[in-house]
Write a structure and sequence with these properties.
The chain folds into three domains: 92 residues, Serine Threonine Protein Phosphatase 5, Tetratricopeptide repeat; 73 residues; 61 residues, SH3 Domains (SH3 type barrels). Helices cover 59% and strands 15% of the residues. It is built from eight helices and seven strands, in the order H-H-H-H-H-H-H-H-E-E-E-E-E-E-E.
């Protein structure tokens, strides 16, 4: 047991040292060296929003747009509420060829989407646990309180905690569905034709370019059926796509 703990701490220390080494290389303008160092950390099984964010920045510096967007998206999965990640991702996306207007949402769905992205699904799950415990404590205090004024305060507080806890559970499941259940990918080819069927002789529906984010909804042999934010669908070669 002690040996396993020691090995874990040693590995963590080595990863931290490599992470800082990559930071120094990045500050010195050695972007490719920084990428190599940080990817070594990834290969060791270390994953974090900061690591993905730094890789996105480094790839953007060497003008590798697809890799840059890919790693910004990976960072955003772990820290959906981070404004700096969102800002850098938006800057990178502004350099892509394709301009895709998302399908419009009503105000309620927009609020749901924006609120759920404030935290990761782990963050919402922790919030759900905290407010469930708070509900339990307040309800116990309400049950044993003698004065009616305190009973009202404890009861109101417990109901509010329960409501927020249930909302947290809802947002946790929504984020889990978005990040884990819904498959997405980034186009890595300079340009690729999206066809009506998963065969080369089928009709070309439209063309998309490097850095475009797509939703993956099906897969057949060497093809993946993808959907764009504007609702367009079709089949593209999976070798032109890197899944998030």
């Amino acid at each position: 047991m002690f040996l396993l703990l020691f090995c874990g701490l040693l590995s963590f220390g080595q990863n931290e040292a490599l992470f800082e080494q990559g930071n120094n290389q990045y500050r010195d303008g050695n972007y490719e060296a920084a990428i190599s160092t940080w990817e070594t950390v990834l290969e060791r099984g270390e994953h974090s929003a900061a690591l993905y964010f730094n890789l996105g920045n480094a790839y953007y510096k060497i003008e590798n747009l697809a890799e840059s967007i890919y790693y910004y998206e990976k960072a955003l999965q772990l820290a959906p509420g981070d404004a700096e990640i969102r800002n850098n991702l938006a800057i990178a996306q502004n350099n892509t060829v394709d301009i895709i207007e998302p399908l419009p949402k009503n105000l309620f769905n927009t609020w749901i989407a924006n609120t759920s992205q404030m935290y990761s699904y782990d963050g919402w799950a922790i919030a759900a646990v905290i407010f469930t415990v708070l509900f339990s404590v307040l309800f116990i205090l309400y049950y044993f309180a003698r004065s009616s004024s305190r009973k009202r305060i404890y009861f109101s507080g417990s109901m509010l905690a329960l409501f927020i806890g249930l909302l947290s559970v809802f947002f946790a499941f929504k984020n889990y569905d978005t990040v884990v259940e819904q498959r997405a990918g980034i186009v890595f080819a300079a340009s690729t034709q999206v066809r009506s069927e998963p065969v080369m002789r089928s009709e070309v529906s439209f063309t998309i370019h490097e850095g475009t984010k797509v939703e993956i909804i099906n897969e057949v042999d060497d093809w993946k059926r993808i959907k764009l934010a504007d609702g367009k669908e079709g089949w593209m070669l999976k070798e032109h796509l890197k899944e998030l």
